[in-house]
Write a structure and sequence with these properties.
- The complex is a heterodimer.
- Chain A has one domain (about 1-490).
- Chain A is globular and about 65 Å long.
- By secondary structure, chain A is mostly helical.
- Chain A has 22 helices and two strands.
- Chain A starts with a helix and ends in a 12-residue tail after the last helix.
- In chain A, a hairpin with a 6-residue loop joins strand 1 (about 185) and strand 2 (about 190).
- By secondary structure, chain B is mainly α.
- Chain B has six helices and no strands.
- The chains are: A mainly alpha, B mainly alpha.
- The interface between A and B is large, with 71 and 75 residues.
- Chain A: It comes from Ruegeria profundi.
- Chain A: InterPro entries: DUF112_TM.
- Chain A: This is Tripartite tricarboxylate transporter TctA.
Chain lengths: ~500, ~160
């Protein structure tokens, strides 16, 4: 591990990569603050830039920086305007906004920054310990297990993303898988489902799809309903200090939530959103009676808990991505797509074949958290000015960047028409309450899923591999249970008021 | 019928077309040596088509009681007219227009027009601010993409 750390340090501390971290965090904070734009849209817009950089470590460092920045920026707008830009920071507004109303906006931002910093750093520490362990185990996996693992991942994502609507989420996953079969597969060298169109020969472009699924519908929703883009000046932000007593009060919260958030983030499908809600609920339940009263009215514990948990979960979601090559959330799925485009296949071999990428990402997490703490915190009063940009200017720019993103990836104007068409489709799906993240994850995993399936079929000369390998069978059983149990339970109970599952 | 079931119906039709292609049209083209393979290019699509059709029917027949938690949706599609629908459609039309004129008109003029018309569609009337901002932004983006990132974007119309 020490050797790895040194490799990571030497890779991450190049001027270029340091610049990437700083740029990523700043861009992420800026855009994450805009209500209605989640980290997925932001990362989707940044991908073409990252890909043209060409160096995979630099690219993923940039995108990861954007990711933390977006979560941090989202909490800023949650606290200042009660308008979360990101689903993962909705819980931060429960107590952050009341604090800002009481004139403690500066203190709330400091607590958010410190909690995010601690959550992210402790998460990175845990990632450093667990990722190598998991990837040693993962080296024993065959393609049959990979196939089964991906099925588990997909069904877990469907089960979590569609709270109460598992069938819809499963359908979206399947549509994503179907879209992935368009074009020429590596195993067969034969075009499928292209309808004779040359433009579809190489399949649908993942960047275009990501833009069409996230950025475009979000922007259209902002146009349709101006109330979504809550605007206003944030008022004066001063007095960023917190007292020692307050620090002592939130320290145990931060400790608990970093660990809990991290492990929730590792689970496929459960990301920053679930971690932050759960963290908030747990801390409220274990707080003392008089502290419980304060929750929802500006409790510093109630702010620290979701802030720590969502950052730790962001870090945790890198574990399955880096060790198994299976993304657990929409955002990591987009990162996976970017890595594949850069000719790096994340998975257990990543640590052996490209240790500099793996460790540079981890080191950059520390740097990113530090940047957020020491650079963004003092700058927040100025960055918050972005909230005052009139939407008449903002929306055309967002749309333009979506168009640009899919154009410079392919240099093909037809791609733009595909983008608009699919964006309209995605908006209709959003109207009908279909979750969109499973579609994109299905699309990204589709190729790998089929490759591994085909390889196992060839090795075992048929479907027998499922029964010959107990682990594969076990994983597939888990996958089926994951989908069946929630839909069975949804028939009976209707609980869960907060179904904000999309967006991380 | 609610919108989500219409969507499921549309996907069902698409999945049936997809399944037809997978089951009946693909295998005939397969070269003989590949027919001895346990997996054909059509195997995975066949599985997907069947699963998709089952899931669609599941939603269409309402077998899964979707929990109605009384959550206010962001946008209620039944009252679409109450929202700024014309603005949204106008922007979509602009995006299509942008796609069509980007090559012939060149990046700078197409982008400038897109940004200006987009803002005007949304109700911006202060042209004295808008025009310089749009011009500046088009140039900066072109400079960053073309010069810094090194991706060629033709800046001027085809006749220049």
């Amino acid at each position: 591990m020490i050797e790895g750390l040194l490799i990571g340090l030497s890779a991450a501390f190049s001027i270029q990569n340091l610049l990437m971290v700083v740029a990523g965090c700043l861009i992420g904070t800026f855009i994450g603050m805009l209500p209605g734009l989640g980290p997925m849209s932001i990362i989707a817009i940044m991908i073409p830039v990252a890909i043209t950089i060409g160096d995979p470590s630099a690219a993923i460092i940039l995108l990861a920086g954007v990711y933390y920045g977006a979560i941090f920026g989202g909490s800023t707008s949650s606290i200042l305007l009660n308008a979360p830009g990101v689903a993962g920071t909705v819980a931060s507004s429960f107590d952050g906004y009341p604090m800002a109303r009481k004139g403690q906006a500066g203190k709330a931002l400091t607590i958010a920054a410190i909690a995010s910093f601690a959550g992210g750093s402790i998460g990175a520490l845990l990632l450093m310990v667990f990722a190598p362990m998991l990837s040693t185990v993962a080296l024993l996996f065959h393609s049959a297990e990979y196939f089964a693992l991906m099925v588990v991942g997909l069904s877990a994502i469907a089960a979590f993303a569609g709270t109460g609507n598992v069938a819809k989420a499963v359908l979206m996953t399947l549509v994503g898988l179907i879209m992935a079969t368009v074009g020429e597969g590596a195993l067969f060298n034969m075009p499928r489902f292209t309808m004779g169109l040359m433009d579809l020969q190489s399949g649908l472009s993942f960047i275009t799809l990501a833009m069409a699924m996230f950025a475009l519908p979000e922007a259209l929703f902002l146009v349709l309903n101006p109330a979504r883009s809550a605007q206003g000046s944030s008022g004066k932000i001063e007095n960023l200090r917190i007292s020692r007593e307050e620090g002592r009060k939130i320290a145990p919260v931060i400790g608990r939530q970093s660990v809990q958030g991290f492990f929730i983030g590792v689970l496929p499908g459960a990301g920053a959103t679930i971690a932050s809600f759960l963290g908030y609920a747990v801390e409220r339940n274990i707080a003392s009676k008089e502290e419980q009263e304060e929750f929802g009215k500006g409790s510093i514990k109630g702010l620290a808990a979701p802030e720590t948990a969502n950052n730790a979960a962001c870090t945790g979601s890198f574990v399955p991505l880096l060790t198994l090559g299976i993304p657990g959330s929409g955002t990591t799925a987009i990162l996976l797509g970017a890595l594949i485009a850069l000719n790096v296949t994340p998975g257990p071999r990543l640590m052996i074949d490209n240790p500099q990428i793996f460790w540079a990402v981890i080191i950059s997490m520390y740097i990113g958290n530090l940047v957020l703490l020491i650079l963004n915190l003092p700058l927040i009063p100025y960055i918050a000015k972005v909230l005052a940009i009139p939407r008449n200017y903002l929306i055309p720019f967002i749309l333009f960047f979506t168009l640009m993103g899919s154009y410079i990836g392919q240099n093909n104007a037809t791609e733009l028409l595909i983008l608009v068409g699919m964006g309209i489709g995605a908006t209709v799906l959003k109207f009908a309450d279909y979750p969109l993240a499973p579609l994109l994850i299905g699309f990204i995993l589709g190729g790998m899923l089929e490759d591994n399936f085909a390889r196992s079929m060839q090795l075992y000369d048929g479907i027998g591999f499922i029964f010959n390998r107990p682990m594969t069978l076990g994983l597939l059983v888990i996958a089926v249970l994951l989908v069946v149990i929630p839909s069975y339970r949804a028939r009976r109970a209707k609980a869960r008021k907060e179904g904000v599952a999309e967006g991380d | 019928m609610a919108l989500d079931r219409w969507v499921a119906f549309v996907i069902l039709c698409a999945a049936m077309a997809y399944g037809y292609a997978a089951f009946f049209t693909m295998d005939a083209l397969l070269p003989p040596f590949m027919q001895r393979n346990p997996i054909w290019p059509s195997t995975f699509p066949k599985v997907l088509a069947v699963l998709t059709i089952i899931t669609c029917l599941f939603i269409l027949l309402g077998l899964e009681k979707s929990e109605d938690d009384g959550k206010e949706p962001d946008i209620d599609y039944r009252r679409l007219g109450d929202y700024h629908l014309s603005q949204a459609l106008g922007l979509l039309a602009l995006m299509v227009g942008y796609a069509l004129v980007l090559r012939p008109a060149g990046f700078l003029s197409a982008t400038f027009l897109f940004l200006v018309l987009g803002s005007v569609t949304l109700g911006e009337r202060k042209l004295i601010v808008l025009l310089p901002v749009a011009a500046f932004a088009s140039f900066v983006v072109w400079y960053l993409v073309d010069e810094v990132l090194g991706i060629f974007l033709r800046p001027w119309p085809f006749f220049l």
